């Protein structure tokens, strides 16, 4: 069995800085200005198969977060069905959610599984997550019900 405290303890220092970028709502990982995915285009993961920076001139808002897009076509696709493109767990790290925490998801460490975009905190964390994606997704889905409305700081203080 994985000991969450020991695994997460090694990354606590880098996470302390990372969790400070929370927007108005706690269920979405965004900068203090409300920018989601650090400005990466959520649709491009699905259409281009890679993280692509969005254009600051091509934006839309969804659930109090601002999303940027590389093209007007991607913006239109997102606006038609945002739930198809937003990352799981509000853009927080999928492995962290499986452990019951909220850590910033890095848009460059991603994977699409069953048409859902998942982000992870770092390369090492993503490699651990990839060791049992179905199991970690199942745990994160269950945990998300309890942690969605809590701040990262509240979860770390437990």
Automatic annotation (TrEMBL):
Keyword list, A-Z: Signal
Pfam families hit by this protein: YHS
Domain YHS: 43-88
Keyword Mitochondrion: no
Signal peptide: 1-23
Domain of life, source organism: Bacteria
Entries under NCBIfam families matching the protein: YHS_seleno_dom (NF041384)
Name the UniProt record assigns to this protein: YHS domain-containing protein
Provenance organism: Tritonibacter litoralis
């Amino acid at each position: 069995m994985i000991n969450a405290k020991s695994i997460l303890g090694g990354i606590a220092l880098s996470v302390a800085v990372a969790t400070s970028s929370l927007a108005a709502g706690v269920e979405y990982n965004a900068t203090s200005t409300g920018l989601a995915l650090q400005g990466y285009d959520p649709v491009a993961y699905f259409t281009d198969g890679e993280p692509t920076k969005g254009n600051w001139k091509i934006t839309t808002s969804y659930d109090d977060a601002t999303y940027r897009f590389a093209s007007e076509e991607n913006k239109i696709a997102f606006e038609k069905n945002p739930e198809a493109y937003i990352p799981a767990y509000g853009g927080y790290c999928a492995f962290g959610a499986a452990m019951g925490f909220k850590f910033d998801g890095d848009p460059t460490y991603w994977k699409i599984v069953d048409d859902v975009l998942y982000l992870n905190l770092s390369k090492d964390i993503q490699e651990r997550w990839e060791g049992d994606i179905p199991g970690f997704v199942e745990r994160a889905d269950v945990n998300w019900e309890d942690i969605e409305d809590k701040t990262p700081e509240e979860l770390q203080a437990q």
